Each structure stands twice: as structure tokens, then as C-alpha cells.
Amino acid sequence: MRRLVAALPLMWLGLFFLVPFLVLLRISVSEPAIAQPPYLPLFEWADGLLTMTLNLGNYIFLAEDPLYLFSYLSSLKIAAVSTLIALLLGYPMAYAIARAPTGRRNLLLMLVILPFWTSFLLRVYAWIGLLKANGLVNNVLLWLGVIDQPLVILQTDFAVYLGIVYTYLPFMILPLYATLSKMDGDLLEAAADLGARPAVTFLTVTLPLSMPGVLAGSMLVFIPAVGEYVIPALLGGPGTLMIGSVLWNEFFLNRDWPVAAAVAIVMVLVLALPITLLRRIQAQEES
Amino acid sequence: MTDPQPLLRIDSVTRTFGDVYAVDDVSLDIRQGELFCLLGGSGSGKSTLLRMLSGFDAPSRGRIVIDGQDMAGVPPHRRDTNMMFQSYALFPHMTVERNIAYGLRRAGIGRAETVVRVREMLELVQLDKLAGRKPDQLSGGQRQRVALARALARRPKLLLLDEPLGALDKKLREETQLELKKIQETLGITFIVVTHDQEEAMTLADRMGVMQEGRIVQVGTPREIYEFPRSRFVAGFIGTVNLFDGTITQDRDTDAVIDSPQAGGPIRIPHAITGTVGQSVTVALRPEKLVIGRAPSEAHDNHLSGQIRDIVYQGGLSVFHVTLDTGMTVRVTRTNRVRDEGAAIAAGDRVALGFSGQSVVVLPS
Amino acid sequence: MLRAITLLGFAFLYAPILSLVIYSFNESRLVTVWSGFSTRWYAELLQDDQILGAAWISIKVATLSATLATVLGTLAALALIRHGRFRGRPALGGLVTAPLVMPEVIIGLSLLLLFVAMDNLIGWPAGRGVLTIVIAHATFGTAFATVVVQARMVSLDRALEDAAQDLGAHPLRVFFDITLPGLAPALISAWLLAFTLSLDDVVIASFVAGPGASTLPMVIFSKVRLGVSPEVNALATLMIATVSILVLAASFRSWRR
Description:
The complex is a heterotrimer. Chain A is an all-alpha fold. Helices cover 75% and strands 2% of the residues of chain A. Chain A has 13 helices and two strands. By secondary structure, chain B is of the alpha+beta class. Chain B folds into two domains: 8-236, Rossmann fold, CATH 3.40.50; 240-364, CATH 2.40.50.100. Chain B is elongated. Chains in contact: A-C, B-C. The interface between A and C is large, with 82 and 84 residues.
């Protein structure tokens, strides 16, 4: 009984999360082929021996074509900029929520979480209507006289930043709120009592103590943003390079599964560092 | 200790966690109907011992025998013991009534009888009117009583209480101590109470055991433990004590002398002591056994002199910190029997302290 | 200043949602030009067999995968919180948190490759469709469900279970009498979260769905890639209304307590 409790989820996640990675790794070093599925068999029986051919060609291909390098770098840049914007917007919001009276605090928290429960896809889609040339944003700006010609916002990197910040803002606010609300109010009063001005108190007490929340929130935005596909697909333009889209196109359009697998493996390696960082913060928070 | 059939026999029980001896070779017999207190600081092993009695933990070595039955391998739900938890552990989704009925239903007692017995319990703890409430609608004192009633409802052979009054404030705690003792005497159920509060142990216990680092260092009645501690640890843990280091210089059948440089001379004891001449010992003297005065009194066979450093007025009594001429500071307490104004002894005054050699306890150093 | 940023932030979060709702009642197909109140897009939505079919598949997939995820997540949380140290603990701990941070494209691609390889090797799962989507969604749903149930389990007073056992309840009975009622709110949240995530996923489903089965998000995605569609606005409004009512009802209940 006791064993089954742990064994069941362990087996499920092992089979459907861990093993797929091994398959992914294996296919990333196999030869593409025009076949169904489009790669050469993973194993072969030859002379009564099970043999496996490893082919690093896919990785060499990735290294040689600058498109891939640019896509990785561009993904990192887009994710980093979006994370920074989300932090600058999310921190004051989390701070205001943490300082609000109890009743209102719960309401505000619910308002942060509520969009998360409504379809992500539809919320990103909503921005198309807002950002189009004859969309709401342009109409309002024209009406106000700020501009005299519609701005091109949709299908730019700016729209992608907007979409990422918009989608992942709750992920930034919640861990920030968690650390800020845990903070002992006496600490702030103690700092004030010892002669610190509010701004100094913020810089010397609040901010350092909320660093775990800042890091956790940032990683929770940054990591999925790097691999994002839907947002650049809907809001980005032809010039928007993101590795998630590259992988998608290799798989669905070029039907080059081995290269798609190699792209995925490299993405995992790129994300290993931020993921390790996030796990370390979370482990520290638990203890 | 020589009871042929104690209700509970703890026989050389040891519990280790890795290299740590949480409970270290404890042996203890507890008689039917006794209220026994296990007293110790945090980490002394008292709670681990309690968890082994209730079955939530098992000894690494040794045996626990309840009413003649070896408890090895018997899970908590098959033991004839019940526990009152420190946090009370009242089921938040059940009413007071259902909380108390829970154990009875599990024991296979029918609905009709359960109702009767729950009533009895509610009356016993005077909560008849709150039967339909949920735990979060009760005060701390009321929750404590529900927890007690729930644990008693099955009429266990042995009731284990883990810091039963720890969550109550001081005044309520004192009232409840007496109430708890009355209930125990009425029902005749054997209680084992774990506590870190020495006053609570002194008030409740028929007998108590003092635990230190996994061992029981002394067992006895509260009076025995207070008046005749067997070690410096016990003397210091129960109440406060002044300790003088010294050497035995004379040990005869009728009297003994211990020379203590800290006391500034010999301490005379009018009876024989265990020890040999030349052995280093510690003399323990409770603060209330010292009598403070302006000049030495003939009534005492031992005298010290010094200067008052400060006086702490506590209402019923005053505590004097007196620095002896040897440099050591002792505590002296005095009941404020008369309201003295003006003429009182003040800080800085020179005073004489007297005590009877009968009142000291000689401990191995 | 703090107030202004906070208000701006909430406006930023809610303006797009509001615009979806408003324009779902717009007469004109040109979503951005207001030409009068109308419910015609709702009527068209209810006659769109493609969307209705996909919605039905999505609800089936979400229900099944959320249920599986809640069961697996509860077991995982139970093992992680209550079993102390056991041999598979580090592995389980890592496996339940990894899907939380793994980009969807990678989860989708790797699972698809597994399904294809398994199909070739042992003939199961034969082809792709509802079954493979359910498996994929249950997998990442389990990770989220574990987190939710774990959080609740940690705050559950262990002494309650000890007390029940001390009062004579068999461990299995303790689980049903004490543990499960204590976990109930978390189980509901976990199920709803897994359900929502499944209903929301387009990337993973696109990889593992195969040609036969299209989920609602897949259909929506293919529609909106071509541009704005008032029918989708109507659908969004219905979904937002459902979620809002559920969330409001839930928070109203917790307020009354």
C-alpha cells in the first residue's frame, strides 16, 4: 500500500516525462529520413548485435546556420527584457497588495489570479484587437491627437514584450507578494525608528529581504518566456525570432524531427542554469 | 519500584535517531491510579518517551509493558492508552460531541451508549451546553477540556498528556491544574503528564521523574525531588538554589563539616553524610532556607556575611541578592509577612545570613 | 504613485478581457468598429459544429486528465510529505517540479516522440488522439496538482491524524475520516487547476493530437492566426463568464466561513 502511493506517480512521471527526454535525446542524434516517422530507425540488428548509430550532424547543422544562434540569443533577449518590465510593474503591485488592509488584500490577490483562470490563448488574442492598425489603442491615440497616423504595433517585438508581460505578470506578482507579506512590519518600523527615511528603508531592508521573491518571480517569467511559441505566433512579426517558433516550424513545416529534437535539447541546456537557480531558491524557501 | 505488577513497566527503553540518543536506557514502573509527571527541558526525551507509550514511535531497545502485555508491534489504534495532544488536535470539521464520540465509535460502542457516555464526559468537563459547537467556536480553555474529555471517553488504562496546560495563560492554568487532578482522582485513571513547567509538575504529580538528555535522573515525590535533589542538575532545574563548592574535612556519625572557600569558612551539618574526608562536594541551599538579618542570630548553626547588592520586590516575597565577603553572590528569599516601611534593609546594607545545617543538601561535584 | 502603478497594472490585466467581452456584442464583423449591439455572434457560435465538436473533445480531455492528475498528484504529495525519506524521494521530488518550468514546446515534442516510438515498438498507443492528449495533460497536470495538494498537506496538523489513530481508528479509516476532509479544498482547487490548464493548452495538444482530434484551443488558434473573429469573442465571453461565476461563488463561500 505504502509503496504504491509513491510508485504510481513515480512510474507515471517517469514514463511520460523522463523517458520522453531520453527519446528526444536519442532522436536528436539520429539521421533524418523521408519516412514515417521521418528518421532512421533508432536501433538496428546487425550480426546479432543491437547497434545504435549516433549522428551529431543535427547539432553541427545548428552550429553552422546562424539562424539558430540568432534565435537563441533573440529569445533570451526578449525573455530578459519582458522579465525586467514585468518586475518593474509587478513589484509595486505586489508591494501595494501586501500593504493593503486584510479584506482588500484578498480581493486584490483574487484579481491577480483571476486572469490566470481564463484562457491564456484568448487573452493573448484580445491584444490583436487592441493593437491592430485600426484597433482600440490606435483609435484612442488618434482621437486624443497624440498621433496623426496609426502606429504599427502588432507584429513587432514590442507586441511580443507586451504579450509576455501581460501573460506572465501574475507569476511575477505572486512570489513577490509571498515574500513581501511574510516580512515583519516591525522591521520597517525598527528601521524608521533608527532614523531611516522611507526610501532608505526600502533600499536597505525591504528590497534585500524580498530578493528571493524577485529571483523566483523573474525565473518564473523568464523560463517559459524563452520557449514561448503562442505569443510570438499571434503578436510577433516576420522579424521576431524566437526559438520556440523555430522548433515548431522545424517540426510542423519542415518535418525535420531530428533537428527539432536537437533544437529542444539545446534549449533545455540553455534553460538548465535558470531552472537550477529557481529550484535552489524554492528549496531555500521551503527550509 | 518493587510493585509486583505495575500498570506500566518501562524496561531499559532506548530510542536512537542516528547517533542521537533521544531516550537512553530508561526504566520506570508506574502504579495503577498514579498521576506521574515527566519533567524535562526541550530535547530531554520526554516527548519521545510519551510517543513510544502511545505507539507512534517504537523503542530501539527495551520493552514497554502495559498491564502485563508487551506493547512491541502494537499500533496506536490497538492500544489501551489515549493521548491528550499538546495542540489538542481537535478535529476541526466535527462538533464537540462528534469529537468526543469518535473514539467510542471506533471502539465499536453502539450509538445509544455513545450518546450516554458523551453526555457523561461533557458533564465531567462542564461543557454540556457547547456540545454542538465546532472547535473554532471555543475558547482555549474550552478546547482543552474537549481534548481531555475526548481522550478520557474510552476509559483508557493509561492517559498520556503532552503539555496539557501549555497553551493556557497563567491564571487559567493554575485553576485547571486543580481541576485536572480532581478529575484524575475521581476516575482513578493512571495519568502520565509530560511538562517542562516545574511548578505544574509539583502541583499535579503524585510522583515525578526528571529527565535530562534522554535519561531519567531522579524519580520521587515532588517533596523528595525539591528537598533532596540528587544532582546539581536536579537541584538547579527545580526551583532556584545556591551552590557552594567545598571539601569534606570531617565526617562522623553525628556530624560533618565541609570547608567551602566560597562560603567563607566551614559549613556544619548535624548528621552524617555520604562521602569521605578530602572529597570535593557541592553544598546546595535553597534561597528560602536562608534568614536575613542585621546581626547574626543565635538560632542558626551556620552564618555568612555580606552586603546587599539589590532587592527584587515580588509582592508576596522579596528576593535579596547578597554578595558575600568571599565575592560570591547568593539569593535569599523572604516572605513579606509584615508591611515594613522605612526601616527595611536596603541595597548596600551589610547583612548577616543564617541557616540550619539540616537544610542543606550535599551533592557530588 | 504606488497607487497609480497598481491601478495601471490592474487596468493592463483587465482591459483586454473587457474589450473581448464588449466586442462580442458588436454587430459588425470588423471587430474594432462599433456598429450596434447584437447577439448574432453567439447564435453563430452555437451553430458552428467545428467549435462545438472541439469544445466537447476539450471538455472530455480536461475532465479525464484533471481527474487523473488529481489522483496522481495527491499520491505524490502524500509520499513527499508523509513518507519521510524513501528511495525514490529525490526522483519523485524532481519529477513533479520539472514539468512546471519546462517550456511547452519541449514537453509536447518529447511526448510525441515517445508516443511514436512506443507505437512502433509495442503498438500502443495506436495512433494519436484523445488518449494521447489525456496522457500529456495528466502529466503536467499532476505536477500542478502535487504543488497545490502539497501546500495544503503541509499545513494540515499531523497531530489530527495521530489523534484519530490514538482513538482507535485504523490508518485507512484515518485517511478517510481526517486526511481527506482536511484536503478537500485543495483537491477541488487542484482538479480545477488541472482542468483549466488542460482546457487552455494549445501547444502540447498540437504536438500529440494527431490529425483526428482537435481540441478547442487548437481550433481557436487556427482561427485567430488568420485574424480577429467575432465568434471567438463570443466564445471567450462565455468562458470568462463561467470562470468568473465559479471563482466568485468559491470566494463567496470562503468569505462566509
